[in-house]
Design goal:
- By secondary structure, this protein is α+β, with helices and mostly antiparallel strands.
- 60% of the residues lie in helices and 8% in strands.
- The chain has 21 helices and eleven strands.
- The strands form three sheets. Strands 1, 2, 3, 4 and 6 form a five-stranded antiparallel sheet that branches. A four-stranded mixed sheet has the order 5-10-9-7. A two-stranded antiparallel ribbon has the order 8-11.
- The radius of gyration is 34 Å and the shape is elongated.
């Protein structure tokens, strides 16, 4: 439960921020009250609360922005570009961290080291430096004491999750598991060696491609000998954010348009390879993480948030893309249930009806005008409304797709996602059917057919043997058969009871007509009473017709 004896100072700050911004539901929880249904503040208020609470809660907001299956569209939009409004840590404190991590004098490692931060975030800040061998590098330094703050706030978030878990909302969305997922993601961000590993893996994956020229795409190289849990050292890339880059220098208008088209195609193909081929993708390609270098190449930055997709999910998402293009509500519903962690068949019809209503507004719109990432967001929201649980990786997929399409449309307003995807779809399906080695797939299929051909005669022989010996048994399961069986049992019992009562009445009448006696009269009246009670019970059950 939410303990007021631990980290009470921090809890007091949280309560003060919540009260100041008027979030009544959270105020009730924090003061020990109970509330049945969570009531979120407006998107703007929620964003303001998270910023005021500090870096950990800003990260929480950033992670929530990747979960359109949990939050409505207006909240996702408000949290998408959430950034902590934190000033850089003074150089005197940063220098202590760097010296502790390197365990040697800075003068022996760096030729130059700029005290002024070039960027500051909620977890770390970045400085530019030059190594003794002349290489220019970027130093990403963890903010001093942030690990203590993170541990403290994670404890509070888990306690709040335990309280929300008592509500219907908490049970439907398993908020305790969500809190654990957030805690794991945040703790992973505190280990810069993991981000370095992610960077290296993506660098290897994008070093070869049959869809684009790998020499035109840069992922910074990690300087492993200097990288630690709290210090990430990587190659310095000289350029500017893509949307701020000057493409006009030394070019005419035609050249600029061609450059924009080439860069947009490169972006789409690089990310489609990450998502649909490698299953390991940059989950946050916002404008600040896409750099246009001075030599004309494109660079990807900041690999703290990465997504993973297994082959089955990749295949379903490929088919989902085609289902959205075809505006096929039935197929969208089937594919969504395939993605669900706990598919419930009776939800399929409701899901299909909701998808049909959602897609109806796109029937008369040209495919070139459809925002596919927005449609996929709506797919996730329909799933949320139908209480269909989907893996968290789909939120990262949706966020990556939305950021990618958003940047592409700003950079090149004439871009058409469908035109960029069409050349890749055939290759994607070929790969899913045959893999990277078609010959190996054909040989594997031939072996399966051979195995089936060898086993089939024996299986047919066994079936015929059981049929002729009358030992064949059929195990049938008919949905809702138990209800039918109980109804038939009730009807049979009532019929048997009616026959017995009728027989008693007739027998008592015969005895009564031959001569009245106490026994015959009692038997006759008792049988008549039972018959009357049976008629009344049938009438009361409403099943006379």
């Amino acid at each position: 439960m939410f303990s007021l004896t631990r980290t009470s100072g921090r809890q007091g700050e949280i309560i003060e921020v919540v009260l100041r911004n008027g979030w009544d539901y959270m105020r009730v929880l924090l003061t020990g009250g109970k509330s049945d249904e969570p009531k979120l503040p407006t998107p703007a208020v929620l964003r303001k609360i998270l910023v005021e609470l500090g870096p950990v809660y800003v990260k929480l907001g950033q992670l929530l922005s990747t979960r359109p299956d949990l939050l409505p569209a207006q909240y996702i939009e408000a949290l998408t570009d959430l950034q902590a409004n934190v000033p850089p840590v003074p150089w005197s404190e940063v220098e202590v961290v760097i010296r502790q991590q390197l365990q040697k004098p800075l003068e022996e490692v760096f030729a130059t080291l700029e005290p002024r931060a070039v960027a500051a975030g909620s977890i770390a800040q970045t400085h530019k430096a030059t190594l003794r061998d002349g290489r220019q590098i970027a130093l990403k330094v963890q903010r001093p004491g942030i690990d203590v703050v993170v541990a403290q706030d994670i404890s509070l978030i888990r306690a709040l999750a335990d309280l929300v878990a008592l509500t219907e909302f908490g049970k439907d969305y398993d908020v305790v598991a969500l809190a654990d997922e957030f805690a794991t993601a945040l703790q992973a961000e505190l280990d810069f060696t993991q981000e370095a590993s992610y960077t290296n893996q993506l660098r290897r994956n994008l070093s070869t491609s049959r869809w684009f020229d790998p020499t035109q795409l840069m992922v910074p190289e990690i300087i492993w000998e200097l990288t630690t849990e709290k210090l990430l050292v990587l190659e310095w890339l000289d350029g500017a954010p893509l949307l701020l880059a000057d493409l006009n220098a030394g070019s005419n208008n035609g050249d600029v348009r061609a450059k924009r088209k080439a860069i947009t195609t490169l972006l789409f193909r690089a990310f489609f390879q990450q998502i649909y081929i490698d299953g390991f993708f940059h989950a946050d390609p916002h404008p600040g993480n896409l750099f246009y270098l001075r030599d004309g190449r494109l660079a990807l930055l900041d690999f703290g948030m990465m997504g993973r997709l297994d082959p089955r999910t990749q295949q379903v998402l490929t088919e989902m893309l085609l289902a959205i293009v075809d505006l096929d509500a039935a197929r969208c519903a089937q594919l969504t249930m395939q993605l669900s962690d706990s598919a419930v068949p009776d939800k399929l019809s409701n899901l299909e009806n909701d998808f049909a209503r959602m897609l109806r507004k796109y029937y008369n719109i040209s495919l070139s005008q459809i925002n596919f990432s927005q449609v996929f967001y709506e797919v996730l929201q329909v799933s949320r409304e139908n209480k269909v649980r989907l893996p968290g990786s789909l939120g990262l997929y949706a966020k990556a797709l939305a950021n990618l399409e958003g940047v592409a449309r700003q950079f090149d307003p004439d871009v058409n996602l469908l035109d960029e995807v069409k050349p890749l779809i055939t290759d994607l399906f070929r790969r899913q059917l045959f893999g990277d080695d078609p010959l190996q797939a054909v040989l594997r299929t031939a072996l399966d057919i051979k195995s089936l051909s060898l086993q089939s005669p024996r299986q047919v022989e066994l079936l015929l043997e059981r049929v002729t010996s009358e030992t064949l048994r059929w195990n049938l399961t008919v949905k809702e058969l138990d209800g039918v069986r109980r109804t038939m049992d009730d009807s049979a019992n009532r019929l048997s009871f009616s026959i017995v009562v009728g027989s008693l009445i007739i027998g008592a009448a015969i005895v009564f007509s031959n001569g009245q006696s106490v026994v015959s009269s009692a038997l006759f009246y008792a049988a008549s009473f039972l018959g009357l009670w049976l008629i009344v019970s049938i009438l009361r059950s409403g099943r006379l017709r």
